[in-house]
């Protein structure tokens, strides 16, 4: 199991801090570095080539609706060519409240939209000329950029999105899940060889209940996003705090092993808590590699 570190690329975090966080991860022998789109934050793809260390990098995830697949393919291959390590492109349709409510983009048929998006995107990333006419996209173009084809993961939570992922992507990126959901829900719906990346909040701490209460307050809105709420319900979780891995070193180490045994190929750790707890978390996470 690859263990990566999720870097918060919000607008409140400077590029210098992102580089420092990445350098700390490199020193701790983390396998990979990941970012996602934060409200008002840095572009997750653009910051990746600036990160030090030459580790594999990835997005978990960038939304599809605001960007045409030809544009995203162009940006992705550019980043792949500039990055020292291999790139994994994680994409997803995001949520109706964000796309329609904040961006003003109609959130129409996300599963069908994602299927068409991948049918255009993947051949472009392979260097092929694409002639395509569908419900959402009409394309007749190719790219001349010479770069290795990146792996593509999809934020797929529901059965239809997992079917699209199985057919057209290299795997999925999941969040707010526990090991039983991986083993009993994700693995059976994805084919052999598919990557299962899971973003997990982790805190090595002597005060796990305090951390859970803080996460419950901070991420309360997650309960109101239908895809996330459905995923929590499938896993029997009351809220996002139930997906948190928190406790002393031995407890966290056992939980990381459970994710590996459930079938996770990429565990993307978002370490939370006080600075001293974050350092403890990195120590435990890297000792599990």
Briefly say what this structure is.
This is LLM class F420-dependent oxidoreductase. The protein has 289 residues and is α/β, with parallel strands linked by helices. The protein has one domain (2-287): Luciferase-like domain (TIM Barrel), CATH 3.20.20.30.
Q: Note poorly predicted spans.
A: none
Radius of gyration: 18 Å
* CATH homologous superfamily label: Luciferase-like domain
Number of helices: 11
Largest sheet: 8 strands, parallel, barrel
CATH architecture descriptor text? Alpha-Beta Barrel
Instruction: Kindly provide the name of the CATH class.
Output: Alpha Beta
What can you see in these coordinates?
Helices cover 41% and strands 19% of the residues. The longest helix is centred in the middle third of the chain and has 16 residues, at 110-125. It has helices at 15-27, 44-47, 69-82, 96-99, 110-125, 159-168, 179-189, 208-218, 226-234, 249-262, 275-287, and strands at 2-6, 32-35, 57-59, 62-63, 87-92, 130-133, 138-141, 151-154, 171-175, 195-204, 245-247, 266-271. The strands form two sheets. An eight-stranded parallel beta barrel has the order 1-2-3-5-8-9-10-12, surrounded by five helices. Helix 7 (179-189) packs parallel to helix 10. It is built from eleven helices and twelve strands. Helix 1 (15-27) links the parallel strand 1 and strand 2. It has a single domain, classed as Luciferase-like domain (TIM Barrel), CATH 3.20.20.30. With 289 residues, it is α/β, with parallel strands linked by helices. The protein starts with a strand and ends with a helix.
């Amino acid at each position: 199991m690859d263990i990566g570190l999720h870097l918060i690329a919000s607008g409140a975090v400077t590029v210098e801090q992102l580089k420092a966080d990445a350098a700390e991860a490199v020193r701790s022998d983390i396998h990979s570095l990941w970012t996602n789109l934060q409200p008002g934050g840095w572009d997750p793809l653009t910051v990746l080539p600036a990160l030090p260390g030459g580790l594999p990098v990835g997005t978990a995830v960038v939304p599809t609706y605001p960007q045409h697949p030809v544009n995203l393919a162009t940006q992705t291959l550019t980043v792949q060519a500039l990055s020292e390590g291999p790139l994994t492109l994680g994409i997803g349709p995001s949520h109706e409240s964000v796309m329609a409510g904040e961006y003003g983009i109609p959130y129409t048929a996300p599963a069908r939209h994602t299927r068409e998006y991948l049918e255009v995107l993947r051949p472009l990333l392979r260097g092929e000329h694409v002639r395509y006419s569908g419900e959402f996209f009409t394309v007749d173009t190719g790219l001349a950029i010479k770069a290795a084809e990146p792996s593509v993961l999809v934020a797929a939570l529901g059965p239809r999105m997992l079917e699209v992922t199985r057919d057209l992507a290299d795997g999925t990126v999941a969040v707010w899940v526990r090991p039983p959901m991986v083993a009993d829900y994700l693995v059976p719906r994805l084919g052999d060889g598919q990557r299962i990346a899971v973003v997990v909040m982790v805190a090595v701490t002597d005060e796990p209940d305090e951390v859970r209460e803080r996460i419950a307050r901070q991420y309360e809105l997650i309960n109101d996003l239908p895809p996330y709420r459905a995923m929590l319900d499938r896993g029997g979780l009351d809220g996002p705090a139930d997906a948190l891995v928190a406790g002393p070193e031995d407890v966290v180490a056992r939980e990381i092993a459970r994710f590996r045994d459930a079938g996770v190929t990429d565990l993307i750790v978002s370490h939370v808590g006080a600075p001293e707890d974050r350092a403890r978390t990195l120590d435990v996470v890297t000792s599990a590699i």
